[in-house]
Amino acid sequence: MIDPILDQVRQQIQSRGLSLKDAAALIGVGVSVLSRHLAGEYVRSDSLAKYRLWLDGSPVVKGSQSPQEAESTQSYDDVEMPSPLAGLVPADFIPERPLNVVDLFCGCGGMSLGFERFKGGNVFRIAMALDIEEPMVRVFNDNHPSPSGDLPIARRSDISDFMNEAEIQGYYLDHLARSTDDHALANELADLGGGGVPALRKRLRELDEQFLADLGARRSSQDYVSAVRALGSAVLGQTTVQGFHNATKLPASGTASPKVGPLIWNNDGAVSDSVRSYSGITEEKLLRACRSRMKKLWEEELEKISTRSSGSGRGQLASAAERINKFRDFLDTAAMRAIKALWIEWRSTREAIRRSFFEDPIIQTRLRAVYENGRQVAVILGGPPCQGFSRIGRGKIRSLQEQSVHVHEDEESVDSRNQLMHQYVLFVAALAPQAFLFENVRHFQAVVKSDGVEFDAADILAEAIESVSARGLGYAVSRRIVVASQHAVPQARERFVMAGVRKDLSRRLSGIDAATWCLSLPRREPVPLQVALEGLPEPEFSNQEQQQPVLPKPEKAPVLKGKARELASDVFRAWAFQGTSVDAHLARPPRPDDGAFFSLMGPGKRWMDYRCEEAPTLQRLATALSSIMKGLEASPDIASKLGVSLSEIQSLSELADGSLSLRLLLESIPPQPGELQHHLLTATYLRKKEGAHGDWLSRMDPAQPSKTIVSHMAKDTYAFVHPFLPRTLSVREAARVQSFPDDYRFGSVGLVDGFKVVGNAVPPLLSLQFAERVAQILAIADRPRDQSGVEDHRKERQPEQLEIC
What we know:
Elements: H1 4-16, H2 20-27, H3 31-38, H4 45-55, H5 67-75, E1 99-104, H6 110-117, E2 124-131, H7 134-143, E3 154-156, H8 165-180, H9 183-190, H10 196-219, H11 222-231, H12 233-236, H13 239-248, H14 284-309, H15 316-331, H16 334-358, H17 361-371, E4 379-381, H18 394-400, H19 416-431, E5 435-441, E6 447-450, E7 453-456, H20 457-467, E8 475-483, E9 494-502, H21 503-506, H22 514-519, H23 529-532, E10 540-541, E11 551-552, H24 568-576, E12 581-582, E13 586-587, H25 592-600, H26 616-634, H27 638-642, H28 646-655, H29 660-667, H30 683-686, H31 731-737, H32 751-759, H33 764-782
Helix pairs in contact: 1-4, 2-3, 6-33, 8-9, 8-17, 8-19, 9-10, 10-16, 13-14, 14-15, 14-16, 18-20, 26-28
């Protein structure tokens, strides 16, 4: 429901004949902010105040625009781009064979799903997906079966392991051959030289198996077993300790059989006994360089441990530091020094073999020829974590232009998250897709410093991608903040998206900004949360990790046809309400006392909305208590006559703050058996307000799009209280809000991982719309070029409506 104040604002704008831009300037908000508020999105109290002041005729205070609103003016896609492609793209465009798509940092498959289901899977095919998180990969493969069944589409791989373009091409082609049973491609890869990729895989497998056997023998020694038992499971389960093993790829310390983590070319399918092992000569100079790098990696990770072990704090922080110290001492034992030497030799030999193979100029040339013989990738999707991006400067852009760059050796790449960014650019250079979509957090756009000069992080990424390829290929790029609620997704999710279209293709689209077109999605009215929750059965309740049951839906929600289907809510229903049952409809059981508090909250209300800082009665009460205290201090004998003590009045005075209203509500709820009061009646909770995460506990508003679904729901769902019921959202309800269709399965992961994979995903209905735009661009590339030019084919007609497949 739109706030009455906004209805008055709309009427005022219309009666005065103002444009949105002029009205926004008069009110003191951003154009996009005003547009979204008029469309029904949530309005903060400070923005409502500006609207009231404007309606009352009060002048705008200069500088009153918030940083967020000012940024929105420049960043949001508040102007819909008219269609320059009308008449150019046939509505029935189907390529001769589906276009290959690679999804990096694929998560559970939200971005892939939109492309895969566009036009029934006849335009795009997800050829390969990579992610380091096992639950993400598991859910992806549950929903994207491999054509061959031999190798899954999604692979658990650490993308930072790839060394150069040739290795990326080799990995992708080997994956393509085995996941599609392409025997011709497999034979070409075997004929590269030295036995080709199959021989390399066999050599690396032999090396890994020998390392695990040697490591198992070392770990069976009495001194190692004693040292591990002295550590205890709490130390080995510490996040910093796990991070050390993840970074070094050293199998987790302990007495169980050692297993290698997500290291590329490891544990990636069978190798035929008939394949001979790669026997290429590895130069001693190269081995020394690799050993030196591995020693450096170990020392860097050890230094991180030392830094974290010296942290100060109390309680859990002190316990964590003590555990980290124990592990640091464990690494210095004789048993672990021997394992370190074994690890260095394994990792350095492994890397030297790969470099010998993929840095061979003959193999590089042959690999490129195999790749360009009809196996090219049309689109790359995905966006890595980018918190460390500020360390990339212009020197990094230059180094990325070297085809065989070893990003790990770059002194500017200390932050592992930077390496992921470098690797993304390296994948674009290696696979030279016709287009790419880079998606990331809304705040990816930020000013960073390098060599004393300020740059925009997104500008640096764009420049790196524009000029990265050693083959002279560049990309025309465009970027914007995309708001999911403007595109039929019932969620106010804001994400940074960059699109790139290869320049040789873009030049064919005379007069068309192809990259901008890919991001200029049609605008639609918001879909309220209540639509996303329609037609679901009652959830199961559990706090435990468990397989999630499949529940039948009580009835199929109606999906309207024809013109009515163009409404955003019906676009959403047609996409999301597929299937007769749902899984992952599992929610955390609310504590009875919390459920009672949830019932007292109104729709759309947050914890901080129930505070009463400015209430006149509160001020009068505080004044009265202060006067009584002064009177009792001056005349202590009055206390006995009144039947009160000074300490009691002082205690009441301390309670008479803005949290008093919350306290009264919570005190009205009987405490749990054995508890003296409601568990939320502590200073930690009661002091939460606007500047202290006062929205940590919120009941969702059914009439508005949901707030952003986040992976933190794996730990805490109190910010997502159901709009009608006294409980928090289920995994399936969160997936609905993210626009995952009901037939998309999450049941193979438990409740905690379910929330995590859903919260990290790209809304697939948003991806479907990107897929439509990208397909329109690639359709022109797929057709023979008319000598008369693209412009002569244009016709005056409206662009196609979004097709829900």
